[in-house]
Amino acid sequence: MASATNLMTEDDFCCSICLDVFSKPVSIPCGHTFCHDCITKHWEKNYVFDCPLCKEIHYSKPMLRVNIFIADMAEKFKSVVKRKASFPLQEAGIGKVLCNLCAEPKSTAVKSCLVCFMSFCEIHLEPHLTLLKLQQHKLIQPVNDLLNRICKTHGDFLEFFCRVDQMFLCLSCKNQDHKTHKVVTLKEEAKIRKTHLGKEKENTDEMIETRRQKILHIQRSLDESRNNADEALSCKNNVMAAVEDYVRKSQTELTEVINTKLQTIEKEGNDFITELDAEIMQINVIKEKLDKASFIDDDFTFLENALSLTVPSPKVKDWSYLKVNTDQFQIQRTMAELQMFVTSKINQLCDPTFREKQQYAVDVTFDPDTAHPLLNLSADGKQVSTGNQSKNKEDKPQRFDQVLNVLAKEGFSSGKSYYEVQVKGKTQWDLGVVSESINRKGDIRLSPKNGCWTIWLRKGSELTANAGPAVNLPVRQIPEKVGVFVDYEQGQVSFYDVDARAIIFPFTGYKFSEKLFPFFSPCVNDGGKNSAALIITPVTTNC
């Protein structure tokens, strides 16, 4: 049989003035009971000795005596509530609430009562299902924070949610301060938010799967690159045997180039994988939050958590356009023609004398006195880019005034010289050497007959040697760093793809009679597409 304590409700022991459990309950002649301080302050405020409930007026202040029975029962009720609140969180399983009335070991609660402020197992819930008075109590899914379900202002159940103020409401709140707002039941709001969280969860699942597929794609691409590298090395070994000395000298160089390129591709691919894995971990953190929030059955707890839940958009990249280059080692066709054009074809792959040319490295810096007014030079004289506003520069005879050109301070009038320029990230550029007497004013036609030995890039993929007539240069890849080699006595200016150690184009058979100066043009910005700088970089031989 349920004890009297088990059937106590807060309504039975609440003062109708402060709406809290009685503190020093006193009865007045009409029979109603209030807290001693509450009724005293009520009379002092209204200057009349009336009953707040039945409105009976007493013409003299009634004598107030503590209602011992009510006081004792109120204290017992407070003890029950306090003991219930001090229970440690015990769980029979994840997310389980235990019955407050069971002796140890406690059974799992099946319902919580918002009137009794307790949770009950099936056995102890029976009075709420069979007794008429208890059947009127509000039962919800079992939770541990029952006091949090009661309106602090009106003492009623929090049954509604205001979408305007984003807060829980009782019926009195709804009908008073929020009567013009959009108010829905907790169930309606929970359903909407669960649907939203479900969509967010689907989005994270999709993002994770996309990145997993991209990792598989990268891994397959790396495998293909390794296979291509193996085939290239095998082809190289077979063909090189037929041309002995020159090919034998090239074998070591080509092997290193292929392995270096493979290492670069593998590093790039592994970096992508690492980044994608990091994004998956980041998205998984968000997904775990969404999973945790989505698995809460109780609408109130769910909404309470959802209100404090912030799901930041993951800081991730759009990987849809990523493609790992696997076509780096298709040299078989070149090898088939190698016996007829050994020197020229090998130089297209890698020049076995490239490192020797790097030994003639010279220090080169931009000459600000020659720079077009739109060009921006770095303080160290190693970088040049095109600005958006012309600078007020003195119009010196050596300054270019119409084309976006700049020369180096250092010139060559004998011997061999070599320098390197980073062109990575650019869609247009001009590089080479020019005679000291080149025209600096007006338009300039780049060709050897005008004292210019240059190459240029246009549209990000069209590489041309300005040989007069121009020569379109078919290259396996657009270089990111260009090496320029000048042999003054031999009349030679050669351009190299530094990373591939391969020749891009040689100007040969010329007779130089003037001092030659390195020539540069970063070209127009093209709406920011070509904003990267040309950078004179230190020469490293990696020996």
UniProtKB/TrEMBL annotation:
Keywords: Immunity, Innate immunity, Metal-binding, Zinc, Zinc-finger. Residues 15-55 form the RING-type domain. The keyword Lipoprotein does not apply. Residues 344-539 form the B30.2/SPRY domain. One of its GO terms (biological process) is innate immune response. GO terms for cellular component: cytoplasm. This is Nuclear factor 7, ovary-like.
